[in-house]
Design a protein that fits this description.
Blueprint lengths: L1 H18 L4 H5 L9 H16 L11 H7 L11 H24 L8 E2 L5 E2 L2 H25 L1
Antiparallel strand pairs: 1-2
Helix pairs in contact: 1-5, 1-6, 3-5, 3-6
């Protein structure tokens, strides 16, 4: 499992590197042909990881209900982050993989509610949720890279 955690950390580090020099306006720009922006994608990755790993394990998520409601699957950008608020999202983005690994190693993931993803893949354990989340993160890394070139 250590490899899965390392993939998650490296993917997130790549995202942060790609967006490092972008302004708050660029992070919120939705180019023609896209339905969301970089800021939404980053917050969506934070939220999805929490839902796949904690919520479906019947544990409390480590992010606010408001963040979950605004950035879960099926949402679109309706809010604009202040620079301070986006810094907080980035702190969660980079810090939560360490917490996930610590919690996994502590053995807190004892239950899992089976879930079929929109890609038709059934997640039935924390191990498959971690692996699937890495696939999801890779998809959004590609989207973020495309957005970063345009904005």
């Amino acid at each position: 499992m250590n490899t899965q955690f390392e993939i998650l950390r490296k993917s997130r580090a790549l995202v942060l590197k790609k967006i490092d020099n972008l302004s708050i306006e660029q992070l919120h720009k939705i180019p023609e042909g896209f339905k969301n922006n970089i800021a939404w994608n980053v917050a969506h990755l934070v939220v999805t990881q929490q839902l796949l790993h904690y919520k479906l394990s019947e544990l409390n998520c480590l992010v606010s209900d408001e963040l979950i409601e605004n950035y879960r699957k099926g949402t679109s950008p309706t809010e604009t982050f202040s620079e301070e608020d986006f810094e907080e999202v980035k702190e969660l983005f980079i810090g939560l993989p360490d917490t996930l690994q610590e919690d996994f190693e502590a053995g807190i993931f004892n239950e899992y509610i089976s879930y079929e993803t929109s890609l038709g893949f059934t997640i039935d354990s924390i191990e498959t949720a971690i692996a699937f989340n890495n696939l999801h993160e890779g998809i959004h890394l590609g989207i973020i890279m495309a957005l970063a070139k345009i904005v």
